[in-house]
Structures are given as C-alpha cells and as structure tokens.
Amino acid sequence: MRLIFHPEAEQEFSDAAAYYEDCRTGLGNEFVQEILAVIERMLAYPKAWPVLEGRVRRVLTYRFPYGVLYVELPGVVRILAVMNLHRSPNYWKGRA
Q: Which of the residues in the chain have pLDDT under 50?
C-alpha cells in the first residue's frame, strides 16, 4: 500500500518535530519515531481505527498528544493531518 501525505499534514509533522526538538534535544526524533510507528500500524491495519467522519479515520499516538487522520483509498493511504489533539478539532476538514 502506498502512503501519501497531504502537504499541510507533512508541514504539521515537520513543525511538531521541530517544536519538540526545541523543547529538548532528541525529543523531536522521539516524536518522529512515534509518528512513524503509528503510520506503520496504520498501514498494516488501515481499518482498525474508528471513523471520525465520512471515511476519515484517526489513530492516536501513545506518548504525545497527537493523532494521525487518514483516509484509505484503493491501494493508497492518504494522511490528512498530523493533529495536535489540543488544537481546534475541525481545522483539517477542508483537506478530505
């Protein structure tokens, strides 16, 4: 299965990693590893997480207050947001 990031989701991922790295050296890398582990689980079991709206699903990280929102399409998983759970919950809807 192929993985595609929405450009804004890719930017969110990068910005969050930079933020955590600024907080503490190495924490940004730990965040990246956590998101990559979530993506790996998501790709292995794309239907395992609850539907938020329409076909959009959300998988949560264990350590950081983030969720990865995605849609499964034929042969593709498209990540719509790497979402801070303390942020406005509907900001991503224009991406679906």
A: none
